[in-house]
Amino acid sequence: MSKTALLKLDDKEYPLPIIEGTEGEKAIDTRQLRVTTGHVAYDQGYGNTGSCESKITFLDGDNGILRHRGYPIDQLARYSDFVETAYLVIYGELPTSARRKEFGLLLRKNAAVETQMQKILEGFPTSASPMAMLSALVSALPAYYADLATNNFEKDLQNFDQAAAIAISKIRTFVAMIYRYQKGLPFIFPKHELPFCDNFLHMMFSDPYQEYVPVPEVSKALNLVLLLHADHEQNCSTSTVRMVGSSSANLFTSMSAGICALSGPLHGGANVAVMQMLQSIHDEGDDGSRFIAAAKSGTKGNRLMGFGHAVYRNFDPRAKIIGDACDTVLTRLGINDPLLAIAKHLEQAALKDDYFVSRKLYPNVDFYSGIIMRAIGIPMNMFTTMFAIGRSPGYISNWHEVASNPKGRIYRPRQIYTGATTRDYLPMAQRG
Ligand code: CMC
Description:
CATH architecture of the largest domain: Orthogonal Bundle
Number of domains: 3
Bound molecules: carboxymethyl coenzyme *A
Low-confidence stretches: none
Strand order of the largest sheet: 1-2-3
Shape: globular
Radius of gyration: 23 Å
CATH superfamily of the largest domain: Citrate Synthase, domain 1
CATH topology of the largest domain: Citrate Synthase, domain 1
CATH class of the largest domain: Mainly Alpha
């Protein structure tokens, strides 16, 4: 017999069904609550609301567990690469060798960007935010691939494989183009024979007279950074993708909205904010205590960037992997980045401080990812766009779940209205 919870309201009892996930996660199903009781569930920021059922990522924030399609993140980080993990996140299984080749080929075929789209980019001032440029380019994709982006789920799902490959491959190319455009450098075309990450580095750093060939450590580090961002359950931007997708919007449009959500400093923009914080500690010759003291003031604008997480209350498993990788990558590349030492010192100081300990605030993935990206040669203003490349498989697979759910509904939360009650319109002359 299925379990129920009992809600008592004004002496009346209402049974509410309990839903249980495959990892034992339990939820009280409140979908009929308003109809049966006249009440809605109030949960500002949805922090305690299951907005969907999903088979993609399992996250247990209390125990620092993250698994994609059942595979623990540390195993994927150790044995997989970004493209294989992207395939896993999107299609639900690790690819066979034949499927891996097909997927790689589809990504390669869709790497180049139309000349017309280059003109869109050239319409931006070079000082524009790279995330604004990226979301604009992605939102323009339906204009160039109208037959894959019809805003009709049935039709769009028939062309899903190609749309997914376009999204992943072109977002990477867009990021390289944005970098070069801002630097006043000519665009470099993708090379068909290069692996995904090497091709990105080629489009970023080659010039017409000298090809950039990354050392294996750099390719590996880039793969790791992207892989660690591949998906992360119902975070702000992925939920945005699902919300926009639920209106029957096509994949590209939904992803563009997700990229906008990612740009904020409390989400994807945190990796930039962390580096700015570490840099100013370095420039001021401070030991970080000023930032720690300010963060403890409790005001949002002073938070210790790269610390805390909406879901992890123990540690962020991605932070541990990337923190360890920082040491290895910098050592192998012979780089001595003073910001790494500052980050480590800051982490130790915060972890000894009762403010952070009592609130269970630990470093998150963004605390160290900027240091690795800097070692690879990615400039700070491009960090959040790197997060967007990495997160593209998560956006794609979440959109697919929405589009292929025959019982799906448009996302439409309720609210508790706290504004003025009804009043009569006053003509201008009577307003004082
Ligand atoms: N520095 C100082 N205080 C903090 C911080 C921080 N980084 N994060 C949370 N707090 C405080 C918060 O003010 C609250 O204090 P109090 O109980 O006295 O009111 C308490 O800790 C609990 O906060 P919370 O409910 O855990 O925080 P949240 O769920 O509202 O916010 C967060 C989560 C990630 C937005 C927040 O921790 C933060 O702003 N961190 C810094 C930005 C950052 O690194 N973001 C990247 C997140 S990981 C990448 C991603 O998925 O986007």
